[in-house]
Amino acid sequence: MKHVLIIDESALFREYLRSKLEENNVQTSIGINAMDGIAKMKNLTPDLIIMDAHLGRQGFMEVLRQKKTGPNTANIPVFIMAQRMAQRQILEIAAYNVKKVFTKPVKIDGLFTALSEILGVQFSIDESPGIVEVHVNDNIIFIEIAQGLNRDKMDLLGFKIMELIELYEIRLPKVIIMLSDITLSYADGPNLEKLFEIITKSSKAKQRNIRVLTRDDFTRQFIDGKLEYSEIEVVSNLQYAIDGLLTELNPKTGTSDLKAELITDKILTADKTAENEALGLKFHTDSDRVFMENMKESLKNMRIAAIDDDFIIQELIKNTFRDTGAAIQTFSNGQDFIAAVDRETFDLAFLDLMMPGSDGFEVLKALQVRDIKFPIIVLSAITQKDTIIRAYQLGIKSFLVKPIKPKDIFKKSMEILKTNF
Question: Domain 131-276: what homologous superfamily?
């Protein structure tokens, strides 16, 4: 039996990968940090090491150096997962028998194809179409599924839901499941049942706090025909679903606040390419203090741009990331930022839509023309739904409405940046 050592500080990611490997009869061991990974590498001599490049304290390079000095470990192949890695560093670590460097978010099929080649094991992977996107707005978990019900991506969905609940400290989970342009049939019944089982188990949401938004007749009939789903409401209008859930959160007003309207960004229009899929897990530890330290470690050397003509917003973003080691570069207009992206790279950008000269929309169009892709979060006081939808169509990743707090900026950044898949 093949043996894989997983060294990663993300408990959720470790558990997902461990479960998938063991489903395919591959033995797994877990290293919760670099030191633990080194000890288990020397004692167990696995057939492969899968390791995150953003380990705290000693770091992944120390694991590689220790591996190279051991006669029983030097030849063990290694897979590295990294948010970003320069070509120079990739060439450097090749000397340590690193076979693959996967840039996050990692594509599932690519990972298991590489695992199959290295281990000589045929993995059972669902190759059917399916795109899953998960985001949180106003403490509602929005799950959008397009193209089909891919079982492997549904498994990942469960881990992502748990990650978001912890990240946003959601005590009363509310879920909207958006089945985007999907037509299902009787043959899809088991997968649909699996979907609801994963969502209810991972979110622990009460059924009365779950809405399913769909135009599909079979899905509606399937839910209506199951006694165990009797409290799940099927709707055809997103604003109705949001208002219903937020009424319970805001009984005094009985209506959703302005932010709720902004959540309709991509309803039933999920991108049909897997390249834009957004499923992610963050680093997880057992205490907030250690969690924050790991967040800071993983943000080191990240390049973040703030494009806003408001000096206060620039300073707010600087202060949010001041102690993380991330490099913040500010721009007061779109022209300067567009000039900068021709010669520099960024991992994340915060963008105001209304600025003198080139506004945010012109910036987004310029990035599209140049085929430059990195996550963009819009920070704006503009609240018209059409404006926000237009921004999403031009490639933004998320939207925060001014005024904003540092905590909101940080958590939204973590949701978007700390993606393994």
Answer: STAS domain (3.30.750.24)
